[in-house]
Design a protein that fits this description.
2 copies of one chain form a homodimer. The first copy, chain A, is built from 11 helices and 12 strands. By secondary structure, the first copy, chain A, is α/β, with parallel strands linked by helices. Chain A folds into 3 domains: 3-81, Orthogonal Bundle (Arc Repressor Mutant, subunit A), CATH 1.10.10.10; 85-200 and 358-378, Nucleotidyltransferase, domain 5 (2-Layer Sandwich); 212-353, 2-Layer Sandwich (Nucleotidyltransferase, domain 5), CATH 3.30.420.40. In chain A, strands 5-4-3-6-7 form a 5-stranded mixed β-sheet. In chain A, helix 1 (8-26) crosses helix 2. Chain A is globular. The two termini of chain A are 38 Å apart. Chains A and B meet through helix 1, helix 3, strand 9 and helix 9 of A and helix 1, helix 3, strand 9 and helix 9 of B. Chains A, B: This is NBD/HSP70 family sugar kinase.
Chain lengths: 388, 388
């Protein structure tokens, strides 16, 4: 090819793509010199320098001056992604609590708020608690609503493409609510609503037990049992948002699995439903025979639905999350044995490392993904909440 | 950006990417003019012309001269992808037959060979039949083995990353066989081995009942029941190649489903296993009560495993394929009703339109995908079987 057929349009398009390559290399990585950036992007050094200076002028990158500790030659300037140029919010709206988190564009959490909510609370009350939790985060971080670039809200039950939980939700009155529409009255940024199991799966891959895997079945094991699926590194929602809802199939026994714990004969009178499972796991750990039987039956039923997921997807890894993951020591070995009996290939099984924060963290991750998608589509304007 | 920072490397890289864009636009599409190609790729017209002439010189494109029927002005030359520059082979190695197909790079079938094989035949005999079927195709197309760019072999049972069926195979002695190694003694091109259900799923999306869908559960319904999964437009193999093997879970009843047909009380004596199902479906169509009950029980059990797949993946579409899809008229309505009882969202259900050719066609598609991956990675050398 000769110079005269390289049009101005071609060159501009290439420059934009190259700027994206440089930002991608710096997102979440240590500061780098122009020489390092040129090597990692495959671009020429002079071309890289021009683009980097433009990104600094626009506010996307900041200069890290050399600290002068080098004794050989003049140390080179480094550049880092300016993660503080924007922020996102993740909210976990659960049955008993709302957990909100606010982070910069690198996902570094700047504020957290956890507020209790009555399990029987209606949608208006629950949304008011969510608002309060988000407000606490904004106040702690010193930010206005219009400085938030994306919000994700995690809820129980499958969520359709419109952010509604119309198919099924265990939260009272929630099927008629749109948290996205509610938040849109105060926030101009995009608001996504997503199923809690799916968000927890994202979180485990981002910062938890599944950082090294691309094919993951995440189990939310608690008084409800759910699943989130990551296939080839991507969260799978399904055509209507209902992927992972294997628990609805009676044959796989997830609907009744926790009842083995609630109906444990050695359970003392006066222990409420919310605390029964914890008591049974502790008693099993102390050698209580009836409790050990209850845990064994629970795990056997948990394994049937898990086997259905594993046989369908053949994942690399199963992550046991949710409230019962605190008792993974009592569950994992038997779960592996049961899968060994039914599955052609038994994946590795690990316990969640994120615990109760996994849904809110996954909501942050999805909000960051949303920002990235808009940024890389819009071609990197100067920092401002990118338009939806 | 100024001209002096556009290095020769940057320009060469851009030219290569632009050539790939043009080939992509022409693959499987009608011939186009330079002006049309420029519009569709977003490249400048002079730049497009330079690249097109290079691709013609290399043999990737051929010129379609104007037919002179235009009466207004001079008609423009068109260019088409030269699909005949390379060929691929797809082979379906089944229990009762081997079906081989040979196509050009557009997937247009140039030769087909179908040879019977004894269900009890050992691996050496079965591979010899496969060789013979491939040889018939080569002879019919007038091609040498070194003119084949890729081969895919479809087999029953899950296939691991090494192309082996070590986990489980219903073909006698087949667990110790590597069809890829066998074919490598005669063919220098890449040889892939893949599970038959997965290939049939690919074929239905390529040319069959699922052309408009990206999230597909394909059911192979016959004396064996299997599944192939396409998610977000991509065939999913699973971490160890065992995705879709839900039938191994006893709770979903696929292992025993066909026995309802084989044990139908109205089945006359003397009808062999291979013909029993066809007899029962026909009898049910004619109103035989026992046959209708057998079909209903079969479908009910088929639905349990299907529900597990649907609840796990929430697909857009379920395709009923395999030998029993010829009796889809007796199965589809009930299958939809059963799914309606258990699934949160019932996908559309359609019968396969490709019948007995689906596995071999899917093998062609996978071979073509393999060629494309190598071409677009290697950056379009002049036509020749691209190196693996």
């Amino acid at each position: 090819m000769t110079e005269q057929v390289t049009t101005a349009t071609d060159v501009n398009r290439m420059r934009e793509l190259n700027a994206l390559s440089i930002v991608r290399v710096l997102r979440g990585n240590p500061p780098s010199t122009v020489t390092e950036l040129a090597a990692r992007t495959g671009l020429s050094r002079p071309g890289t320098d021009v683009i980097v200076q433009g990104l600094v002028a626009d506010g996307w990158l900041t200069v890290v001056e050399p600290d002068g500790s080098s004794i050989v030659g003049r140390p080179a300037r480094r550049y880092r992604f300016n993660a503080g140029t924007g922020h996102v919010v993740g909210v976990d709206v659960g049955a008993h609590k709302v957990l909100a988190m606010l982070s910069d564009l690198d996902g570094t959490v700047a504020a957290t708020s956890r507020l209790p909510v009555d399990p029987g609370a209606g949608p208006a009350e629950r949304l008011a608690v969510a608002d309060a939790a988000v407000d606490e985060c904004l106040a702690a971080a010193g930010l206005r609503p219009d400085e938030i670039w994306a919000i994700t809200v995690g809820v129980t039950g499958p969520v359709d493409a419109g952010g509604r939980t119309a198919l099924f939700t265990p939260l009272p009155g929630w099927e008629s609510v749109s948290p996205a529409e509610h938040l849109a009255t105060r926030f101009s940024c995009p608001v996504q609503v997503e199923n809690d199991c799916k968000l927890a799966a994202l979180a485990e891959r981002w910062q938890g037990a599944a950082r090294d895997a691309d094919d993951i079945v995440y189990l939310l094991a608690g008084m409800r049992t759910g699943a989130g699926l990551i296939i080839d590194g991507t969260l799978r929602r399904g055509y209507g948002g209902a992927a992972g809802e294997i628990g609805a199939l009676r044959a796989v026994r997830w609907l009744t699995a926790p009842s083995h714990l609630e109906s444990c004969p050695s359970l003392p009178a006066g222990i409420g439903t919310d605390d029964a499972a914890a008591w049974v796991f502790n008693a099993a750990r102390s050698g209580d025979k009836a409790a050990k039987t209850a845990v064994r039956r629970y795990t056997r039923d948990l394994a049937v639905g898990t086997a259905a997921l594993v046989l369908t997807l053949d994942p690399q890894l199963v992550v046991l999350g949710g409230g019962f993951s605190r008792s993974a020591d009592l569950i994992l070995d038997q779960l592996a044995r049961e899968l060994g009996r039914t599955c052609l290939r038994v994946p590795e099984i690990r316990a969640s490392t994120l615990g109760a924060e996994s849904v809110a963290l996954g909501a942050l991750r999805l909000a960051l993904d949303e920002v990235d998608a808009r940024l890389f589509e819009a071609g990197l304007p100067a920092p401002a909440a990118p338009r939806a």
